[in-house]
């Protein structure tokens, strides 16, 4: 629940990590069924924490894109039903734009125009944000998202799910210079990412190169920590380097970073270092607003102020947002 002054009155997150852990990744059908079971208790709990009644709600924000179709549908159906029953406006929110907006919420003031960077389990997207509702997609990954790479590398190393926090924890006792993993596209101007080569390099380091004469170095605890630290260093070098290029190419002086991977402390430190060298104002969402949450849907207030409400026959737009894909232009327009 968010009030007009963007104060978070309550924020309830029904994490599903426990349900997906044994599979090492999100299983779509399990996710949507869990949404069905949890959506009403989550709404009730957020009203309770905010000490509000359903009748106090003035507008409803719902993420309609991008994402898994089943999960989006559950949220949209609940939101439409409430909007109809309460007779309040419905606002369709883009989940990725909301990740950038988490920085605006934390700042407590207008921070646009800016470069927005969302680094999550599904996306590694750079935006040129002229205003809070006018985002141009200027870069994305051509294969895996950064968070996905963290999750897959953690699986290769056998250290748990979700991978990001596990890698950060284990990397703390490793040597980031132990193995020189590839930094794909870092030396090129294009605002594109690729993490599948890095992931394969980790796989070969752990299991050995197929057909090679020598076997891999035994996987001791220290070796796992060194691989985790070296992987983290390589992935984050690329993420930070591309932010620098985006700032320079678009001549922006403000950078907003959100999404689950922005919870990574090494990433946050490197971003701060880069931003001060570029004389750039940096906004990183606080950890509680980096990973998925509903509070960042406060971007709906910006849309509502511009009359961007949704009709009750609106549908979800599932899938991933990729620069060259079909969905690149489907961010809310002002
Ligand atoms: O934004 P998010 O919560 O969900 C999506 O919309 O995808 O991002 C989840 C991703 C996962 O891949 C997870 O491994 C990663 O964020 N993540 C991290 C950290 N915490 C979460 N990656 C690196 N370091 C972390 N501390
Ligand atoms: Zn997300």
Please supply descriptive tags for the structure shown above.
334 residues, alpha/beta, 6-stranded mixed β-sheet, two-stranded parallel sheet, 13% strand, binds 5'-O-[(R)-(carboxyoxy)(hydroxy)phosphoryl]adenosine, binds zinc ion
Topology pattern, helix = H, strand = E: HHEHEHEEEHHEHHEHEHH
Structural class: alpha/beta
The largest sheet, given as strand count, sense and whether it forms a barrel, is:
6 strands, mixed
| Whole-angstrom Rg | 20 Å
How many DSSP E strands? 8
Give the end-to-end Cα distance, rounded to a whole number of Å: 24 Å
Which geometry do the CA atoms define? globular
Question: In words, what does this structure look like?
Answer:
- The chain is α/β, with parallel strands linked by helices.
- 43% of the residues lie in helices and 13% in strands.
- It is built from 11 helices and 8 strands.
- Strands 6-5-4-3-7-8 form a 6-stranded mixed β-sheet, with helices on both faces.
- The protein is globular, with a radius of gyration of 20 Å.
- The chain binds 5'-O-[(R)-(carboxyoxy)(hydroxy)phosphoryl]adenosine and zinc ion (ZN).
- 5'-O-[(R)-(carboxyoxy)(hydroxy)phosphoryl]adenosine is lined by residues 120-122, 147-148, 150-151, 162-165, 168, 259-261, 263-264, 291-292.
